[in-house]
Specification:
The chain is an alpha/beta fold and 555 residues long. It is 64% helix and 10% strand. The protein has a six-stranded mixed sheet, with helices on both faces. Strands 2-1-4-5 form a four-stranded antiparallel sheet, with helices on one face.
Length: 555
């Protein structure tokens, strides 16, 4: 890049000599040919080297972009559920795409402009001063106005870019949410309502982006105007000097050439200001995310037990997602290794919240959870989750094949995989599909029914063979016959595993060693299936209603 800048500074000197040679009495054809050939040679060298530095610098900027995106994604994966519950997906997507792109531009074009401004601009100005100091002084009179304009518009550019990016985040989130809920939109005829919302968000982004574009559009013409003023001064006063023979025609042409070279660094100052203002605003937004510290982390000197068992103890555990709002209150329960535990209760009683505390997706607000005789908060987080399998209520599937969703890049022999498939009653379903395990499920499993998605999610959970297995409402979307077969096979399969199942279906809990009934975030009753029928009204009524429904389905 430095060589290219140096070659640019040499060419006006050759042109100066050529013009002065043309106007002299001792005109020489050979000298002119040599000068033209040398200019052609420098042009070829500049073209080759410019390609080289653009490839290297832009490639480095792409490396920076990739590095930031990788770091950002890795950091987002470390954030806990409490943080992610409060952040919009659209904001994170904007950080990962638009904001990082602006930072790349700073590291690419921004560095190029900075070097050109310092080296090329400084050297050009020095040569102009050496050629004629007074003419140079007159030529740079408009420059202070350029600095004032650049500083003033730069501040506005920073503000407008920040507001435009925030508006873009809102628009991205709204569009993402609309596509995710497209079936609800169509079923309830919400097209006009959602369309108006997106239109309003798009208009807001358009207006804020237009303000940013207005400042950018204003900057370049102003820079061009002040540069043309400098050219006017040079031609007027320089022509006067040529007439007085204080300056040769070649020197005036060379001076104009240098002024043209100086125009790029001067105009680039405005462009660089625009880039840096955008880049700094985007960097600030990304740093806000990168500086966020998750509450759920492995402690210093985290403990890694040599052996893990499935003994779990809740001691006076309370929990709430928001400060001052309690979901679970004073939970005390003891789960022995190898036992099966059922948890039921009315909607909103805290069943799912309780399940999410065991793999420490959230921290308890009060009390302790003890596994292996150790406080959950003192155990290494990765080690803890390696021994716990949780099947969430939502049967989320990735875009890919059924096999990819079950194995999740793990290697497994066909015999073991087939056994898990049979346990989850997927064998008959797969045989009806043309590609079997290699069937593409589509985005979020769009091509499958709710029950099929649930069985695949169950297979993904069981294939991990963890010491503690937690199933949150695993059969809610299955028919009674299929659910009964799966529950029977599960009972035989998890003999040495601590098994926790959360369900509204009493039939799913009937075979559990102990069943806990939650009401208003507290354990209301506990016991075996038969004991709860005798002493808990909610449990008994739920069982009788569901038993009637199941018998009706069979009929």
């Amino acid at each position: 890049m430095i060589i290219v800048d140096a070659a640019q500074l040499v060419i006006p000197q050759i042109i100066k000599q050529a013009i002065d040679n043309l106007s002299s009495a001792s005109f020489d054809n050979k000298t002119l040919i040599v000068q033209c050939t040398f200019i052609l040679f420098l042009g070829l060298v500049m073209a080759g080297l410019r390609y080289g530095w653009r490839t290297l610098l832009m490639g480095s900027a792409r490396d920076v972009e990739k590095g930031i995106r990788d770091d950002l994604f890795r950091h987002v994966l470390t954030l806990d559920m409490a943080y992610l519950d409060k952040v919009k997906t659209g904001d994170i997507m904007t950080h990962a795409v638009s904001d990082i792109n602006h930072i790349r531009m700073v590291f690419g074009f921004g560095v190029i402009v900075l070097v050109d401004t310092i080296l090329l601009g400084g050297a050009t100005l020095a040569i102009m001063l050496w050629t004629h100091p007074k003419l140079t002084a007159l030529a740079v009179i408009p420059m202070p106005f350029l600095i004032i304009v650049t500083r003033t518009l730069g501040k506005k550019m920073h503000t407008f870019h920040k507001t435009a990016q925030e508006s873009y985040s809102q628009l991205t989130e709204l569009v993402r949410e609309s596509f995710f809920g497209i079936r609800i939109i169509k079923v309830f005829n919400f097209e006009n309502i959602i369309g108006n919302k997106v239109r309003e968000a798009s208009t807001d982004y358009f207006k804020k982006n237009l303000k940013r574009a207005f400042v950018t559009a204003l900057l370049r013409p102003l820079l061009g105007f002040f540069f043309n003023l400098s050219t006017l001064v040079v031609i007027f006063y320089g022509g006067f000097l040529v007439i007085k023979q204080a300056l040769t025609p070649g020197e005036l042409v060379a001076f104009l050439q240098y002024l043209g070279i100086l125009a790029w660094p001067v105009i680039a100052i405005g462009w660089m200001t625009n880039l840096f203002q955008r880049g700094m605003a985007s960097l600030k937004r990304i740093n806000t995310l990168l500086d966020s510290i998750p509450d759920v982390t492995s402690p210093e000197n985290a403990k890694i037990p040599s052996k893990v068992n499935g003994n779990i103890l809740f001691k006076d555990v309370s929990f709430g997602y928001d400060e001052g709002k309690t979901i679970l209150s004073n939970i005390n329960l003891k789960i022995q290794q190898g036992t099966s535990i059922g948890i039921s209760g009315p909607p909103g009683s805290g069943k799912t919240s309780l399940a999410q505390l065991i793999p420490r997706l959230y921290n308890t607000t009060k009390g302790k959870i003890i596994i292996n005789g150790l406080d959950l908060n003192t155990i290494d987080l990765n080690f803890l989750r390696k021994h716990i399998a949780l099947m969430p209520q939502e049967s989320f599937l990735f875009s890919g094949t059924i096999k990819e969703n079950i194995l999740m890049e793990r290697d497994m022999d066909e015999e073991k995989l087939d056994r898990i498939i049979r346990v989850c009653s997927l064998k008959d379903t797969l045989e009806k599909m043309p590609d079997g395990l290699d069937t593409i499920v589509g985005e979020r499993g769009i091509t499958l029914s709710g029950g099929q998605k649930q069985r695949i999610a169950l297979a993904r959970t069981l294939i991990l063979e963890k010491l503690i297995i937690i199933l949150d409402d695993p059969i809610s979307q299955m028919d009674t016959h299929t659910a009964s077969k799966i529950l029977l096979r599960l009972k035989k399969m998890v003999l040495n595993t601590t098994f926790i199942i959360i369900s509204h279906r009493i039939s799913a809990l009937a075979s559990c060693d102990t069943i806990y009934i939650l009401k208003n975030g507290r354990i209301d009753h506990s016991g075996t299936h038969q004991e709860l029928i005798e002493k808990d009204r909610f449990y008994k009524e739920s069982f009788l209603v569901q038993q009637f429904e199941e018998e009706y389905e069979k009929a």
